[in-house]
Design goal:
Elements: E1 3-10, H1 12-16, H2 20-29, E2 33-40, H3 44-50, H4 60-67, E3 72-80, H5 82-90, H6 103-107, E4 116-118, H7 122-132
Antiparallel strand pairs: 1-3, 1-4, 2-3
The chain binds adenosine-5'-triphosphate and magnesium ion.
């Protein structure tokens, strides 16, 4: 399996509780390298574009409001099988169903305020990375 990149967001519930370092430690312990990272405040338009795939879902408005409610940390992670590896490290969307030791089991507050985002496929990773980073901001 070749080295791959995935896109990560530490969501507002995580930055609010000062968990950036604790979550980054779990990411690095899993063998993923943080090759780009910045703390930003998403605009409503950015959040709506980012989660456009969910725009017909009943929780869309709540999700967008949450993602712009505080700062987020956007990241590019690199490693072997990075997309699936990070999904494993994150755990299930609903923290009550997440496996022991995962970021969401350890830190998420609820199915909505679930601390992290990770891309679901290499193709979406490329699109999501390009939404937030230019090439010269990613240093592998
Ligand atoms: P993400 O895309 O953020 O990595 P995911 O892939 O595990 O999460 P998705 O099904 O893509 O889950 O949902 C996107 C996000 O929408 C979830 O992470 C969560 O913040 C929110 N969400 C999903 N389902 C619900 C729900 N039933 N109620 C409230 N919010 C939800
Ligand atoms: Mg998703």
């Amino acid at each position: 399996m070749a080295v791959q990149r995935t896109f990560s967001i530490l969501k507002p519930d995580a930055t609010e509780r000062n968990l950036t370092g604790a979550i980054n430690a779990l990411i690095e312990k899993a063998g993923l390298r943080i090759v780009a990272q910045k703390r930003i405040r998403m605009t409503r338009e950015q959040a709506e574009t980012f989660y456009a795939v969910h725009k017909e879902r009943p929780f869309f408005g709540e999700l967008v409001d949450f993602m712009i409610s505080g700062p987020v940390v956007v990241q590019v992670l690199e490693g072997e099988n990075a997309v699936l590896n990070y999904r494993d490290v994150m755990g299930a969307t609903d923290p009550s169903k997440a496996a022991d030791g995962t970021i969401r089991k350890l830190h998420a507050k609820s199915i909505g305020e679930n601390s992290v985002h990770g891309s679901d496929a290499p193709e979406t990773a490329a699109i999501e990375i390009a939404q937030f980073f230019s090439g010269n901001e990613i240093v592998g």
